[in-house]
Write a structure and sequence with these properties.
heterodimer, A: alpha+beta, Dna Ligase, domain 1, D-amino Acid Aminotransferase, Chain A, domain 1, 4-stranded antiparallel β-sheet, B: alpha/beta, Aspartate Aminotransferase, domain 2, 8-stranded mixed β-sheet
């Protein structure tokens, strides 16, 4: 039995999902016989951790602040083992632009893209390069903030006239945004647990709106199929790409990799990786784990073990 | 979206989002006296169930409130509800089968949207201008629906100091709406939480009083004139509808809190209830003026907003390339919040509009909140100018001076057209 601090909530725009993930983790920990310390992350985090001195921290935070390496760095300093990926992997996966560059370098297919910060537009006249970008990416174009975990700020530009508004929207969330070629096809999510891929989940929009990108992320307008009904070859390839992504980002324990299967070419493209996937009743990771015969409780317990293992390992590494 | 709104509740955020009254000025001694009186004089009764339709003594207080706004009501036509919101729910439950049409204003009260949606109503929204819902468009809409063989079950309206737009339906339009209801034999649901919070101008008769309670159903509440915490509202409706509402109410919660109802009674006996409303009027009038001044100072010239003569809200419309849901995410980084306009529509409109509440923050916070929102809007306007190569120099502010100087008739309202560009998040 361990004293487990469950870190959840925080200031991120994904606070609500995080609270639900955290509550579910807490229930599982209690069932497993652990002592649960519930921590809604705020300015008193370091103080709380100091007071409570937990054996380990279970991270149920989503989005910037929790998933970007910040909290991980703090826990490293405080000497508290924590679940999931380390600081570097968090930084690499939270920044979609960095992720995509790393994918490109390793030969993992990802949709063609261009990324800019606000300075490029305000100080370097990048707007002048928009037509060239638009021509290369072809419409429709997906515009998204570099570091937002959920679908917030993701826009779909159908014509050149849509692009400035979409960029303004994306810049509401981040100082860096990317314009990405739209891959029309099927939305897949492959969770990777300890370096091994779980069954593929497909997100199926209930009504097929051509180009209705946003509806795919709306609860109730999307159903999830697990395992996804795919040719064996495609499943194997999606899983291999997910594992390759997990490895090259240096993830630890778990990650969910979002993949698109292009309808026209049957090619697969990696969009991004999430190092702290949602853990609510309807989230994709628990569904995939369940399909692989790993119950939620078993998953939670294993994440704790891995946190302790890494802490042990780093002690030796430090000698 | 719901996730975004949850973040607005952080303590460090200046929230201009909620429609909360300021309860901080309610005299604690009065509260204590009222509570003691109920406990001392009617403990057992206050702790007991009450009649489903509500207590007659509380209804008498309600009749008093309605009389003060010029509306006469028979307590037999009334059901006491758990807040005005339950009134919307019960009326919708009573009248709507999945797919039935409700006609509402565009924009409409954001809190009614989930209610209508949960009963699978097909909500058709009719544009407003500075004089409230446009009757020409209403008639066109009704004709179009009739041609499709569809008959609305009711028309939902907040005619006075509308939530979210802040506008008030003119007397002429009120008369026309009542006529339309009679001509077409259509029910109207008049939601009237704010009419006593008038900061200027003459009061306008309620739809209910113009109609005499034939086709108009009326929703009232103590939330804005006493307390939202006591959760007491009421519905006035014609007998056949009222009977069904009563049945629905029985199924929902048997009765509204007896304790709360008796607190209302004791409060009405203890003090002059209208004194507190007077104090709120003074408080909110200054806050409204502060917000209007701050808007003129800090919002870019491309923005427009309403100038409400009462109530709790101002509705601001921004250039159509700004999506206020995304803007909210950005504004939250600066610890300020508002309600994105799309929450007041069921059809995706309103994306470049926002509802601003001025009742629940002090004047300094209102000014600071508007300053922060204005700064973020200015940034986005500038960025858009850079991206499109059309720098937008700040023109003279003359247009907005006119806004603040004009009376209620001079409200500038620009309700957004369906957005043509990129979709939302």
């Amino acid at each position: 039995m361990s004293r487990v601090a469950v870190l959840k909530g925080g200031k991120s725009l994904e606070r609500q999902v995080s609270l639900r993930s955290g509550a579910r983790v807490e229930d599982a920990l209690a069932r497993l016989g652990h002592e649960v310390i519930s921590v809604d992350v705020g300015s008193d985090l370091v103080e709380r951790i100091g007071e409570e001195s937990p054996d380990v921290a279970f991270l149920a935070l989503h989005g910037p602040g929790g998933e970007d390496g910040t909290v991980q760095e703090l826990l490293e300093i405080l000497g508290v083992p924590y679940t999931g990926s380390g600081v570097a992997a968090c930084i690499r996966s939270m920044d979609k632009v960095l992720t995509k560059h790393l994918l490109l370098e390793s030969g993992v297919p990802t949709p063609e893209f261009y990324a800019f910060n606000e300075t490029a537009f305000q100080g370097l006249g990048a707007a002048g390069a928009l037509p060239a970008m638009e021509e290369r990416l072809d419409f429709p174009i997906v515009v998204k903030p570099a570091s937002q975990g959920s679908a917030l700020g993701v826009k779909f530009a159908r014509t050149a006239a849509d692009v400035p508004g979409a960029l303004v929207a994306a810049f509401s969330y981040d100082t860096k945004v990317l314009l990405e070629r739209y891959v029309r096809g099927r939305d897949l999510a492959v969770s990777v647990l300890e370096g091994a891929a779980l069954p593929v989940v497909e997100a199926v929009p209930q009504e097929e709106h051509f180009y209705d990108f946003e509806s795919r992320y709306e609860i109730g307008r999307t159903t999830f199929v697990c395992p996804a009904q795919l040719p064996e070859r495609i499943t194997a390839r999606a899983q291999a790409l997910a594992v390759a992504t997990y490895d090259l980002l240096g993830c630890y324990g778990v990650a969910r990799v979002d993949v698109m299967l292009e309808e026209e070419t049957s090619e697969l493209f990696v969009l991004e990786a999430n190092v702290i996937p949602g853990m609510t009743e309807t989230s994709l990771l628990p569904q995939a784990a369940e399909a692989a015969g790993v119950s939620f409780d078993a998953y939670v317990e294993r994440m704790l073990e891995l946190a302790f293992e890494r802490a042990e390992g780093s002690k030796f590494a430090g000698i | 979206m719901r996730d975004l709104m949850a973040v607005t509740a952080r303590p460090e955020v200046i929230s201009l989002a909620g429609g909360l009254p300021d309860t901080s000025t309610f005299p604690p001694n009065t509260f204590a006296d009222v509570a003691c009186r109920v406990a001392a004089e009617a403990c057992a009764k206050a702790l007991q169930y009450g009649p489903t339709e509500g207590m007659r003594e509380t209804m008498a207080c309600i009749a008093d409130v309605m009389r003060s706004e010029g509306t006469h009501v028979d307590v037999d036509d009334m059901v006491i509800t758990s807040g005005g919101q339950q009134g919307i729910d019960l009326v919708t439950k009573t009248l709507i089968d999945p797919g039935d049409v409700v006609v509402a204003e565009a924009p409409t009260y954001p809190g009614a949207v989930p209610t209508f949606s949960s009963y699978q109503a097909d909500v058709v929204q009719v544009e407003m201008d500075a004089d409230g819902m446009r009757m020409d468009l209403l008639e066109q809409t009704l004709d179009r629906l009739e041609a499709d063989g569809r008959r609305p079950k009711f028309i939902y309206t907040v005619p006075t100091f509308q939530n979210p737009a802040g506008v008030t339906m003119s007397l002429e339009r009120r008369r026309r709406l009542v006529d339309i209801a009679h001509e077409r034999e259509l029910l109207v649901l008049e939601d009237n939480p704010y009419s006593l919070l008038r900061y200027e101008g003459e009061s306008v008769p309620s739809l209910y009083s113009l109609d005499g309670g034939v086709y108009v159903m009326y929703l009232g509440t103590f939330s804005k004139i006493l307390s939202p915490g006591i959760r007491i509202g009421w519905v006035v409706a014609p007998p056949p509808v009222l009977e069904k509402i009563n049945q629905g109410k029985q199924g929902a919660d048997l009765c509204s809190s007896t304790l709360s109802q008796m607190m209302v009674q004791a409060y009405f006996e203890e003090v002059r209830w209208s004194d507190y409303v007077d104090s709120l009027r003074q408080l909110y009038r200054k806050r409204r003026d502060t917000m209007l001044d701050a808007l003129a100072e800090f919002f870019p010239p491309q923005a427009e907003w309403t100038r409400p003569g009462g109530g709790l809200f101002i509705w601001a419309t921004l250039p159509d390339f700004i999506d206020t849901t995304d803007l909210l995410a950005r504004a939250l980084r600066d610890n300020v919040a508002f309600v994105p306009g799309e929450q007041a529509y069921l059809d995706g409109r309103g994306r470049n509009a926002m509802r601003l509440n001025f009742s629940n923050q002090d004047e300094d916070s209102i000014r600071e909140g508007i300053r922060r929102i204005g700064k973020v809007i200015q940034e986005q306007v500038a960025l858009y100018g850079t991206l499109t190569g059309q720098e937008q120099p700040p023109p003279a502010r003359g247009s907005q001076e006119a806004l603040t100087d004009s009376g209620e008739g001079g409200q500038v309202v620009s309700f957004p057209e369906r957005r043509r560009s990129a979709g939302g998040s």
